[in-house]
Amino acid sequence: MPTNASGKAEQVGDSASLEIVARAGLIAYGVVHLLIGWLALQIAWSASDSKSADPSGALKTLAAQPFGKILLWLVAVGLVALALWQASEAIWGYRKRVRKQVTSGLLAVIYAALGVSAASVALGTGQSSSQSQKQATSGVLAWPGGSVIVVVAGLIIIGVGAALVVKGVKKSFAEEIDTSSMSAGARKGVARLGQVGYIAKGVALGLVGGLLSYATLTLDRQNQGLDGAMQTILAQPFGRFLLTAAALGFVAFGVFAILQSRYRRM
């Protein structure tokens, strides 16, 4: 009986309908990164700092468009499907490859959280990512040994960022996409997009983790999350140009994610 249940669950993970919706989720994931890049560019070159260059800011920007709530629900459904697909990969896709299982599991959590966030914004109950992180951090800090937990979490985020940078430098993402139908020039262009996108996102995540750990150790809760990382970049010498480079990196990652919807191996 357990074998039959497992077999049926695996069939759900491999279903064509889930694959189609998951590919749509990759488009949604790409669009979110395109919007983050656009918001970061606005922060870099606008006198206004009212915009938030994080996933919540991107989702609220999408909500402000015509038919925004409908688009948000489509984004939410696609991301949840993407999370289910990654969860099925973690459980059945890499039985003998623990690192791949862990990676797929983490991606499933990220996609699910982003999908829930999109649904919350559509319902009008969503908070900013930075505000949510500050509340979560404050809650954990109240636990015994909470400071240690938060610092460790920051170090883990730094590790994830470093892994993304390595993935970009080594172009190991190429094994996840099928570019056999592309011309040599197109393959080179896609590889460059993935490389720039993964490196930029990895650096941004590393900065987020560093800020989280630093804020915990110094009791400074002002700049946390991705938006805080963007503001920190902007405050550096030549900050506008550095933030522009980071923004273009997120745009590159977004375009790459959208291309993955067509060429991703599933």
Question: What's the pLDDT, averaged over the residues?
Answer: 80
> What structural category characterises the helix and strand content?
mainly alpha
- Give the distance, in angstroms, between the N- and C-terminal Cα atoms: 28 Å
Percent of sequence in beta strands: under 5%
Number of helices: 10
Low-confidence spans: pLDDT under 50, at least 5 residues? 1-6
Quickly count the domains: 1
Rg for CA atoms: 19 Å
Descriptive notes:
The chain is an all-alpha fold. The chain has one domain (2-263). It is 79% helix and 0% strand. It is built from 10 helices and no strands. The chain has helices at residues 2-13, 16-45, 55-63, 68-93, 98-123, 129-141, 146-170, 184-218, 225-234, 239-263. Helix 1 (2-13) crosses helix 4, helix 2 (16-45) packs across helix 3 (55-63) and helix 3 (55-63) crosses helix 5 (98-123). The longest helix is centred in the last third of the chain and has 35 residues, at 184-218. The two termini are 28 Å apart. The relative contact order is 0.15.
